[in-house]
Amino acid sequence: MEKDQLFTRRTLLTGVAALGAVGAGGALALGLGNGPARPPAPAPGPPQRSPLKPSAYRLQPLTGYGAPRAAPRQPPVRSEPILRMSGRGRTMLLTFDDGPHPEYTPAILDILAKYEVHATFFVCGEMADYNRDLLARMYDEGHVVGNHTWSHPQLTTLTRRRIRSEMERTSEVVEKAYGEAPRWFRAPYGAWNRTTFQLGAELGMEPLAWTVDTLDWTTPGTGTIVDRVEEGAAPGVVVLSHDAGGNRSQSVRALRRYLPWLLDSGYHLTIPRRSLI
Questions:
Q1: Helices marked H in the chain
Q2: What Cα–Cα distance (Å) separates residue 121 from each residue in 8, 15, 77?
Q3: SS3 102
Q4: Cβ contacts of residue 39 below 8 Å, gap of 6+?
Q5: Is residue 19 exposed (0-12), middle (13-18) or buried (19+ Cβ within 10 Å)?
Q6: Using CA atoms, how far apart are residues 144 and 122, in angstroms rounded to an integer?
Q7: For each of the chain's 277 residues, which pLDDT tens digit applies?
């Protein structure tokens, strides 16, 4: 592609010869008359940038194209996951695991959009691979997508090679569909060990756990889920819910009830930022 954009003097002279009917005046206008050629006057407006090499381009999400973001620095290797976020005021994080699901995830996204709230979705690669459009929507609507492994295994029972594969495959799918690699990782079942911390850091991810577990995967009832969120609400709290892995209609109904309550109570629902660790 770049070779086609580099015109040599020989190529230009050949083109002028083919356009002899234009006359000497046309040749002079191109800077190809007698004497040294003059560079053309710069066009008005901002200067043109040099074309990027193919390796400099980054795959963008399906919608919402924009300038590629800088790759994050590799985080430190931690000995335990992050359980809560610091920051000013009554700030909380809502997180959803195991998706995206073609039925429950769009319903959750619709509720979040209604209240203009951002959340974090820890996705499983095998689910994300079949629902890449939902990852693109998450990007467009300002949500964060984290890595929750490919097939949701208990990592502490796997070899280092298998753990790396579970993480890497998911990060690749997320980057292709979401537009950037995940910067946050959550171990299935909350099963962490030194290998998961090391490999997560190598892939540029911080380990984020949770403070309040709704236990919605047990389908305890919509009211019970709501009570657990409202009773556990506090500054810095990270709430764990699920948008896949089973029937999550209770989780959706609960979110519809406790989200406006949190907002009316003065809580600011946000997304994780490394500056808040």
A1: 2-5, 9-18, 24-29, 104-114, 125-130, 132-140, 160-178, 194-202, 222-232, 249-264
A2: 52, 57, 22
A3: coil
A4: 31
A5: exposed
A6: 8
A7: 443 433 333 343 344 333 343 333 333 233 333 334 444 444 444 444 333 333 322 233 333 334 444 555 789 999 999 999 887 789 999 999 999 999 999 999 999 999 999 999 999 999 999 999 999 999 999 999 999 999 999 999 999 999 999 999 999 999 999 999 999 999 999 999 999 999 999 999 999 999 999 999 999 999 999 999 999 999 999 999 999 999 999 999 999 999 999 999 999 999 998 765 5
Which are the contacts of 137, defined by CB distance < 8 A and separation ≥ 6? 63, 106, 109
Which phi and psi angles does 139 have, rounded to 5°? -60, -50
Angle formed by the axes of helices 104-114 and 132-140, nearest 10°: 10
Are 182 and 145 in contact by the 8 Å Cβ rule? The answer is yes
pTM: 0.74
Q: Which residues are catalytic?
A: 97, 242
120-123/184-185 β-pairing? unpaired
CA dist 67 → 64, 156, 179 (Å) = 10, 38, 10
CB burial of residue 139 (10 Å; 0-12, 13-18, 19+):
buried
27 Cβ contact list (under 8 Å, min separation 6): 16, 33
